[in-house]
């Protein structure tokens, strides 16, 4: 495999990924509009409900969809951090390096805000938890998060490139230890340590 | 004040909140549809881009909007956990009790998935980090998260009611300690301890 390797699903140009990319614009634009907007929100709500109605009418049953979504690429298509099918995901694109680390860059907008102009601390935890999981995958042994410690050194800014990185540091029996960081302009904003246990929730079938 | 007190912004029937509620349906329906859907995703993408174009054309400048969004109710209108203006937020509705605790119930769907059929561990961390912040507000002294420890006891299920709770336990100078839990069916799935420092990022003006 050529390295650095892409560890998340590449968004596709058409299909559901294209619709999800448009949905991300809606999420952002609604927050940017706010209460003071002149936009006809009743009309917007009506249009969006009509699209949702149509999608729901044609969607598979939940159990069927759960089986489908855990086939093949599995989580990387639909997770809330990297998934091109999930409008909640920024999405973060992570690659694996030869030294065993994984990393990606992203810029976050208003939907991810905590303190004024800064990334929500819980969003940083979400990004880092997921990145540690991908780092475990890259290292070849994955597990369920048992404990996650997140340290906040300085606020991470919105609207500026952030780097998210992670690396598995040790395996002791079923205990996996993995670390990660969220940085801006070369300075760590948030660092994390995770303890994972090598087991997994079974895939639906 | 009557207790238990509502600690988050109540979604309004019309305006941007109604459009955001519709956007949440879109996010969920796109994930439910997946790749195997018969829906015309090119058409859906086109409709959503048209709505986004229209919203963006009428939106205030970012700096102006940042000042506006930090007036009044501030974060509770737009944050990614409880905000009725933020389609990423489930939204969680928290109330404060006389004993000093805050709590809310919610049911999460596919956008919040980590392991098959379960809540993403990072999403639990996001919900809990935010809830600890609201617990600090309810206790009367807020701060910035310095360290968050999240312990995962058992997977939290999607599609079932979950309870999220938090409580400030001590204040020592500027150090605030706050705990919280995410539970399902009366059993703790995830517990957390947070250390906060009593300071805040200034509001934009």
Automatic annotation (TrEMBL), chains A, B:
GO biological process: fatty acid metabolic process
Chief location category: membrane
InterPro entries for this protein: HotDog_dom_sf, RHA1_ro05818_N, THEM4/THEM5_acyl-CoA_thioest, Thioestr_dom
GO cellular component entries: cytoplasm; membrane
MF GO annotations: hydrolase activity
Keywords of the record: Apoptosis, Cell membrane, Cell projection, Cytoplasm, Fatty acid metabolism, Hydrolase, Lipid metabolism, Membrane, Transit peptide
Pfam families tied to this protein: 4HBT, RHA1_ro05818_N
Catalysed reaction, written as an equation: octanoyl-CoA + H2O = octanoate + CoA + H(+); hexadecanoyl-CoA + H2O = hexadecanoate + CoA + H(+); (5Z,8Z,11Z,14Z)-eicosatetraenoyl-CoA + H2O = (5Z,8Z,11Z,14Z)-eicosatetraenoate + CoA + H(+); decanoyl-CoA + H2O = decanoate + CoA + H(+)
Bilayer disposition of the protein: Peripheral membrane protein
Annotated localization: Cell projection, Ruffle membrane; Cytoplasm; Membrane
Top-level EC class: hydrolase
Family to which this protein belongs: Belongs to the THEM4/THEM5 thioesterase family.
Protein name: Acyl-coenzyme A thioesterase THEM4
Originating organism: Streptomyces diacarni
């Amino acid at each position: 495999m050529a390295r650095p390797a892409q560890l998340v699903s590449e968004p596709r140009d058409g299909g559901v990924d294209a619709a999800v990319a448009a949905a991300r614009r809606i999420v952002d634009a609604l927050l940017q509009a706010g209460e003071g907007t002149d936009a006809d929100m009743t009309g917007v709500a009506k249009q969006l409900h009509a699209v949702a109605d149509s999608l729901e009418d044609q969607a598979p049953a939940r159990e069927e969809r759960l089986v489908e979504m855990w086939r093949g690429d599995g989580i990387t298509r639909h997770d809330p951090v990297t998934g091109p099918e999930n409008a909640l995901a920024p999405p973060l694109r992570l690659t694996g390096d030869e030294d065993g680390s994984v990393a990606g860059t992203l810029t976050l907008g208003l939907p991810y805000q905590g303190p004024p102009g800064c990334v929500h601390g819980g969003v940083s935890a979400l990004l880092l938890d997921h990145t540690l999981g991908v780092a475990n995958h890259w290292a070849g042994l994955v597990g369920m998060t048992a404990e996650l410690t997140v340290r906040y050194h300085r606020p991470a800014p919105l609207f500026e490139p952030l780097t998210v990185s992670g690396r598995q540091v040790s395996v002791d029996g079923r205990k996996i230890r993995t670390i990660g960081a969220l940085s801006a302009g070369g300075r760590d904003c948030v660092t994390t340590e995770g303890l994972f246990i090598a087991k997994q929730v079974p895939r639906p079938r």
